[in-house]
Amino acid sequence: MFNVDIDSILKPFQRFGVHLGLERIQQLLANLGNPHHKVPIIHVAGTNGKGSVCAYLSSILTEAGYRVGRYTSPHLVNWTERICLNEQPVSPEQLKQLLLQVQNAISKDAESPTQFEVITAAAWLYFAQSEVDIAVVEVGLGGRLDATNVCDRPLVTIITSISREHWQQLGPTLADIAKEKAGILKPGCPAVVGQLPPQALSVVRSRIIELGCPSVWPQPALELPTAGTRKALYDGIEYSLPLLGEIQLTNSAIALAALQILQQQGWEISPQTRASGMAKTKWPGRMQWQTWRNHQLLIDGAHNPAAALALRSFVDTLDDKSVTWVMGMLSTKDHADIFKALLRQNDELYLVPVPDHSSANPTDLATLAQNICPLAACRTYPDLITALEAAVSSKKLIVLCGSLYLVGYFLENLENPSIESV
Fold first, then answer.
1. Are 110 and 30 in contact (CB under 8 A)?
2. Is there a cis peptide before residue 40, judged by omega within 30 degrees of 0?
3. Residue 340 contacts by C-beta under 8 Å, 6 or more apart in sequence?
4. Which CATH architecture has domain 288-419?
5. Cα separation of 367 and 37, whole Å?
6. Quick check: 2 pLDDT over 50?
7. Residue 62 CB-half CA count within 13 A
8. Among 119-128, 318-327, 353-362, 369-378, which stretch is predicted with the lowest mean pLDDT?
9. Percent of the chain scored above 70 by pLDDT?
10. Which of 197, 198, 312, 323 is the most buried (most CB within 10 A)?
11. Where in the chain is the domain with CATH 3.40.1190.10?
């Protein structure tokens, strides 16, 4: 398996964990010839919606005929998903070669880069070598000290949303988190900002004024009443919305507002191209219907309270509002607030560990959930497949959520049926 090779290169860097700061990545990129200086970028930060906005932008710019890089994280099934060229993941062999180049460029006497810094350097290298016209780059964590924040003149900077997540690294308040995310804003560079809570809004607005950034604050697109395919309207452009959930009215508007700025800079992106590129957008693992053993499941990360509220809002639009939740969460997440957003009386909750990550204990989660909401059933299972086998007999809507890593594990099992229990 190619993953063994890629994992064997990346795994030693995992021990350095999350270690925010720009000195290591800047030194590493300098040793590689500063590939990031050759790549015009759209830089995208935010608590939720970053991935969807990157997916829309990449799809539409590809549709417009440009050579488009896309860098996102985390991956669902394998590392190659993170680095794409015109919607196609880098090949395993290419990624391996890029990582070896990065590995060879690490100064022996310097502090070791983190795993995220290594894969980020590989992305910059790939985009420079591929001579992309533009790259859509998603912030990994925060913004100001994130390894992606090494470009002085982004074409457009985007902040999609701000809510309380990663507060252990970014600070306890929304103002603290907003300050970190606003750290990607650059003097005079255009900014597109989604709908923010007041505490975060004042911080971002002050920074935009301080830096003299031309800014756009788009309202959500208007959903059009249609039978069948979901349609939306933003700035006179009518388009199909392929991604589920009301939140996509906001995310799609943010993407289109950013493309408007590019158009003003001389990029050729016609209204027809924007509509057709939007319709072709794919972003797996986020409010996605998936068939498993002849049963329909809804899968979504919903790994923080704001994402959980968006998922619950979508579930409430469905005919079957009584839910069997199959969930696993990382130990670092706001478990109580996620449960408060999702759970309703008479729901069932099946809790599992998140494989190969710092998982919250399912038994502890079960105790917490039952204190928050009276449930029809609350059970723990040793693994995801066992829980899903039990869930499909419940005859309720089944939603798998709580962690993108858990969703990725599910999708990996889907591609490798031998892993499923029989």
1. no
2. no
3. 305, 372, 373
4. Alpha-Beta Complex (3.90)
5. 51
6. no
7. 22
8. 318-327
9. 95
10. 323
11. 2-279
